[in-house]
Amino acid sequence: MRLAVASACSWIAVSAAHAQQAAASAADAQQADAQSAAPAATPAAATEAEAKVDNVVTVSGSRISARGFTQPTPTTVLSADDLAKNAKPNLFNAIAELPALQGSTGRTTSTNSTSSGIQGLSSLSLRGLGPIRTLTLLDGQRVVGANVTGVTDVSQFPQLLVKRVDVVTGGASASYGSDAIGGAVNFITDKKFEGFKFNVEGGQTTYRDDKNGTLQAAFGKAFMDDRLHVTGSVEYGREKGIESPGFGEVGPNGRTWYQNPAYQIRPLAQTNDGKPQYTVISHAQQYQYAKYGLITNGPLQGTAFGANGEPYKFNYGSNGVPTGTGAVSGCVNPFCVGGDLSGSVGAGTNLAMDLTRQVAYTRVGFDINPDHEIYFTANFGKVKSVFSPNPGAAKNANLTIQCSNPYLPASIAAACAANNITSFQYGTANAEFPENINVHPTRKMQRLVIGADGRFPAFGKEWSYDAYAERGVNFTDIIVHDMTLNARYNAAIDAVKLADGTIGCRSDAARASGCVPLNIIGNVPVSAATWNYIAPQNGPQQHTRMQQDVGSFNVNGEAFDSWAGPVALATGAEWRRESYRVSGDTYGNGVTADTPNSAAYPADPLLNSTVGNNWYAGNYHNASGTYNVKEAYLELNVPVLKSATWGEANINMADRHTQYSTSGHVESWKLGASWKTGIDGLRLRAVTSKDVRAPNLSELYAAAVVVNNVVQYQGNTVTIQQRTVGNTKLRPEIARNNIFGVVLDRPSWAPGFSASIDYFDIKVNGVISSLSAQQEVDLCVAGNKEICGAMSLGNAVATNNYVTVQAFNLASLHSKGYDLEGSYRMNLKDWNLPGRFTVRALVTRNISFLTDPGVVGTIPSEGAGNNLGNTPRWKGLASQSWDTDKYSLTLSQRWISSGKYSNEFIECQTNCPVSTVIHPTIYNNHMKGAFYVDLGGTWKFSDKATAFFKVDNIGNVDPAPAPQANLSFGINPALYDVIGRVYRAGLRYNF
After folding, report:
1. Does the pLDDT of residue 25 top 50, yes or no?
2. Distance CA 909, CA 962 (A)
3. What is the pLDDT of residues 380-430, one digit of tens each?
4. Which SUPFAM superfamilies has this protein been placed in (predicted)?
5. Strand ranges (DSSP E) for 521-680?
6. Is 1.20.58.100 the CATH classification of the domain at 75-244+351-390+439-481+541-585+620-695+730-768+809-990?
7. Minimal CA–CA distance to 663: which of 766, 514, 735, 541?
8. pTM for the full model?
9. What is the rounded distance in angstroms from the CA atom of residue 653 to the CA atom of residue 685?
10. How far apart are alpha carbons 673 and 668 in whole angstroms?
11. Average pLDDT, the chain
C-alpha cells in the first residue's frame, strides 16, 4: 500500500496518531493517489505505519495493537524516504535535528576529552535530559550499551534496512522499562524486504575537509513458498574529520571565526566596586604560559623563549606589565586580551572526529505455519574514531626551573645571579612536542537474537505474541598515543651538567631508570630518545567488555468488545542482566592483583605503582559490576465513548513492576486518554506517567577516573587531579511526566492540513548527578565544610592537588515546554503544475529546565535559554518540498534562538551589585542563536536508479563563540553547527 504522500520533505516528522489514522483510511488514500485527485489528507510518515488488512496498527508509544486505538503519547515518525532525503552519512545526524532531541552526542562533541569514554559515540537525547534518560531500541528490543553508562551507539545499527524511526516524546517506562524518562527512539527494520538495493554517496565541506563516503547494500529473498525469508545488509562509511591546526588563534583550513573566546573573571572579593565580575573577551591570552615557555614569577617574569631558546620580552596584550609576583597589571587572572596568541591551545582541538563505520546484519525468519514464525538476527558493528583533544600538554605556571639548568641561555643564568635567585616559576604549552595527543576509541558490537512471534486463538479472540532471547556484547578499546607521564616529564626537565660534561637528569633514581633530559627552554626539537622516555609508545589504554542478556515475552490482543469498542490489553515479562568489566594500563591504574605489571609497562621508581594516575590525561582504572532486572507489565486500552455527536474516546493505562538486584523494587505507570471530539478534525490527548531510570553500571561501580583539570581558587588558576568515583548506594531516579495536547487532523475545510500542540512537564527526583570540580571548590570557599573534605588544594606539588567528584541522588530536574507541529500538502494539478508541494514545521519551546543540585549552599539553576548548554528557548525545523514522479527539491531550515551564557548571571555594566557564587555579575550576557538553510534534490533517471544531492548550511553560518573559564574549546558543538557548509551527492539503486 502506497500513500500519495510517500515522498515528503527531507526530515518529515509527524505524530503517530496521524499514522494510526492513516492505516484506518488506507483505501481512500490509495485511491486518491491513483487518481491524482485532491491532496491526500494523510501526513507523510503514515505509509510506514504497518497498516494491516484489519486496520490494526502498532506504534512505539504503546504496546497495544488494536483496531481504532489512538494512543495518547505523542510520537514523531520518520520514514525511510524522509531519512533518505536527508542524505546524511549517519542516520543519527538526521534524527538529532528534530527539535525534541537536545543534548545528543556525536563525532563533533567531546572532542576535547581524553577520558570521558563517550568520544565518537552517536547517542540520542530527548528534552536535554541526556542519552542516559533516552531509551534507544532496535525493533522494540534493547541493545547492549556501547560504553559503561549503558548508552547505545546508533552508528552500529543496520541503517539501510531501517524503514521507520519512531520518536516517543513522552515517558515510556511503563511500556519499555528503565531509561525512558525523556522518551524512546525505536528503529524499525524492514523484516520482509525483497530484492537488492545499494546506496553510494560522498561529500566534503566548503573548506575541502571532512571528506566522507558511504557504501551500503541490502538484500532480501523468500524461499520455500515464501515460508523462509532472509534479509541482510552490509555498510561501510568514513568521515575523515577536521584536524586541529595546532597552536594559536587559527581555525582549521581557512575557518576564520575562531577568536579565543573566554571569561575574564575578577576575584569575588573585588566586586564591591560596582563593576561586573565576568567579562566575555575575544583574543584571550593566557599569561601563565607561552608557546615555548614563559617565566611567570620573580624578577625575570615576562621573559619568554623562542627559536633555539633565545629569550625575548613576552607580549601579554592589554598593555599588561608583569608585577614580579605572578600577576600582570591590566589583566585578570589568567587572561589578558591580545598580545602573543601563538601559544593558545583552544583551536587545537579537532572540530570533528575521523569516524569509520562497518556494520553487517542479517535476519532469517521461518514460518512454521501461517500463524507462527521463528527468527534469528545477528548484528555486528565496528565504529572507530580518531581525534586530537589538544596539542602539547600545557603547564600553567606550575613548573620550577633551576637557574643551574644547562639549557638556559647564558643571559638568563647571569640574570638569575644578578637578582640573587636560584630558581623561577615557569609555564609552557609544550609546542615543541613532536606529536599532538591522539585518541583512538574503537567499539565492536556482537548481538544475537533468537525469537518467535505469531498469533493464537483464546477466549474466542485472536491474540498475538512475541518472545525473544538476546545476548549482546560490546568491546570498547580506547588507545591513546603521544601522552606524557607526569613524573618522567618533571624528572626530564630538571636537567644538570654531569661530571663527565654531558647533560643528564638531576635525580639519580631517574637516571638509573632511563631518564633522558628534556629541553623546554624555547623551540628546540625533542630527540626521539627523550620523547620515547616521557611519552612511551604504549600510552594509556582502556579495554571494556559490556554484556547484556535479555529474555522477554509479550502478548497482546482484544479481550472483549464493549459498547464503545474492543477492550485491548498487552502484557509481558522480561529478565535482563547487565554486566561490565573494564581494565586500564598499569601506569594509569596502578599495579593490582588483576592487572600485574608487564613488559609493555615496566616498573619505574618515579611512577606511583599503587594508585597509578601517572599520565598527563587518560588515567584509566579497573572496575567491574553486574546487576539483574526482573519485571512484568500490563497495559490496557478501554474505549469509553463512541457517539456521532460527541465523538470517540479511549483511556490507556499501564503498570510495570521492576525488581533490581542493586536497589530493590520500583513501580512505573501510565494513565492517558485520547478524545476524537465531535468537532471536525479536532482531537484532544493527555497522559501522565511515573517513569524511572536505574543507576547504570558506571554510576554504581566505576573505579576512580582521574583527569587533569584546572580550577579557580583564591584568585589563582590551580591545576588539579579530578577524581571521579562510583557509588553503590545509588537508587533509581523517579520522574513524573505530564502531557496535554490538541490535534487538528485534516478537517474537511482544509483536507491537506494537520497541526498539533503538546504541553509537557517533566519532574525528575533523586537525580543521579555530581557537581563540577569548580562548583565544589566554590562551595568549599563559601564555607561548606563537608564539600571541603572532598579536595586538597594549595599544595606546593601540583599533583597533590585534587578534587573528588562522586554521584549522588539528591538533585532534581524540572523541564517544561511545548511542541508545535504543522503540515500542509497540496496537489499542484490545480495550478497546471506537476507534482505535490508540502510545507512542514516542528518547533520545541523550552519554558524552563530547572536543575537543583540539592546541596546546601546551592540554588536551582535555569538551563532553558542557556546556549552554552543543550536547551535553547526555541529549536525549530521546517521544510518546503516539491515532489514529482521524476524529481524533487527540498528546502529546509534549522533554527536555534539566541540565549544567555547563564541564566544565573546578573547583567550590568555600572553600579553592579556585589557578585556572589550563586549570582555572579557579567558585562554582557547575550549569546546569539543560529539559522541554517539546507537544500536537497533527487532525480529518478530510471525506474530503479535515483541520483541525489544535498547542501547543508548553505550560508556557511559560523558557530557562536562559547566562552570558557579555561579556554579549553570556545564553541558549543552540542547546539551549533561547527563544521560549516557541506556538499554531498550520491546514487541509490533498487533492483
Report:
1. no
2. 20
3. 999 999 999 989 899 988 899 999 999 999 999 999 999 999 999 999 999
4. Porins
5. 541-562, 565-584, 623-643, 647-660, 664-676
6. no
7. 766
8. 0.89
9. 13
10. 17
11. 89
